[in-house]
Specification:
There is one protein chain. This protein has seven helices and 18 strands. The chain is of the alpha+beta class. Strands 1-4-5-6-2-3 form a six-stranded antiparallel sheet, with helices on both faces. A five-stranded antiparallel sheet has the order 12-11-10-9-13. The longest helix is centred in the first third of the chain and has 17 residues, at 97-113.
């Protein structure tokens, strides 16, 4: 349950007033791109230039007659903290009515006034008070009217320590009927039982908790990525999370290696201009491409997919397969019917994360981009 509390502060931003260094840097970037105009355009903005904050970004299309707001991008860090994903949805479909009214009013004011805003806010997430600082920046394609809104929201890191809500992890269901396969990273993982096995490199299941150990946390399996004095960083079906040592257990019977669903189970299907179908992950990385003639190929996670706004989603926050075994089986069955088999290239992020070369999935995908290849502009 989430609710909105009274706004702490809303003002026109000044660099000296912005507390978070990342937001300050982004505002400097917006000012530079604006120049002597009233607004910069979307074409002036290159997401690669603010990759340091990309997971905290929301990009909103402004539609008119009637005035509506459609979320084009909902950053992964924001999704993780909020517990819902608005990508491709209208703000008036926001699941929390109180917050919906607030954010709609905020967007309407930005369109009307055309001025950037700095907001400090208190809200309740999962029953706990959270404070965030947000920067709202208008963009214009014609130089006169606001046509897009770029917002960045940073929660107080001292309050919010966990990358995924623990209530989400607690609902995790242990999956069964899987077999071990290895991705090209050389790390053994597990995929659906129908996936053909290849050479195996077992992850350690020793009592000592170290990177590569498969453990249980609140009833669900997870792969240890990092252990330090502050706790344990894990990769589970729901994504990357941080827990304390006492929340982790290693069963007496060693757990088999597994592939977290977030890296192979389709979240939705994009339809490309030529009719090809692209199955994409919950983080919007391409998994498989199915050509009009039915040919199935493992897709490149960094590839930009021009899907012309056509997308079908296979689950929502209420039916997420991390804690809904029937939904996971339903999606897996659909993928089999579409001819999908084998391991997607996105699984290679596991090796990158284990080696400590990236802190999150997005950074790991960037590591996978071959030299000379232009990645997705929002990667």
């Amino acid at each position: 349950m989430q609710e909105i509390l009274t706004p702490v502060e809303i003002q026109r931003p000044a660099l000296v007033d912005i507390r978070d260094a990342r937001l300050r840097r982004l505002y400097e970037y917006w000012l530079e791109k604006r120049g002597d105009r009233r607004f910069p355009s979307r074409r002036d903005i290159d997401p690669i230039d603010f990759s340091y904050v990309l997971g905290h970004v929301i990009l909103v299309d402004v539609l008119r007659d009637p005035l509506r707001f459609r979320v084009r991008v909902h950053g992964t860090e924001m999704v993780a903290k909020a517990g819902y994903d608005l990508t491709g949805k209208f703000l008036d479909d926001h699941p929390i009515s109180e917050y919906r009214h607030y954010v709609m009013e905020r967007c309407e004011g930005l369109v009307r006034d055309g001025e950037p805003l700095l907001v400090r806010h208190d809200r309740t997430l999962d029953g706990k008070p959270r404070r965030y600082e947000a920067l709202w920046l208008p963009l214009s394609d014609d130089g006169r009217h606001v046509t897009k809104l770029l917002a960045t929201q940073i929660y107080d890191w001292q309050i919010e320590q966990v990358a995924f809500p623990r209530s989400v992890v607690a609902k995790g269901l242990e999956q069964s009927g899987s077999s071990a396969v290895s991705s090209s990273s050389g790390v053994a993982v597990s995929a659906p039982a129908s996936t053909p096995s290849t050479s195996m490199v077992k992850l350690t299941t020793a009592p000592i908790i170290e990177p590569g150990t498969v453990v249980k946390v609140r009833g669900t399996r997870a792969l240890v990525l990092k252990v330090d004095k502050d706790g344990i960083r894990l990769l589970a079906d729901a994504g990357i999370l941080s827990v304390s040592r006492r929340e982790v257990s290693i069963p007496k019977v060693p757990l088999e290696p597994f592939a977290p669903m977030r890296l192979w189970l389709a979240y939705g299907i994009w339809i490309e201009q030529d009719g090809s179908k692209v199955l994409f992950s919950c983080d919007y990385y391409p998994l498989w491409r199915i050509a009009p003639d039915g040919t199935v190929t493992a897709d490149e996670p960094w590839r930009f997919v021009d899907y012309a706004g056509r997308a079908d989603y296979l689950f929502d926050d209420e039916t997420a397969p991390w804690w809904n075994a029937p939904k996971a089986q339903e999606i897996e069955h659909l993928m089999k019917q579409m001819g999908v088999s084998g391991a997607p290239k996105l699984l290679d992020v596991i090796g990158i994360l284990l080696r400590g070369e990236a802190e999150n999935i997005r950074q790991a995908v960037r590591q996978m981009v071959p030299p000379g290849i232009q990645p997705h502009p929002l990667l």
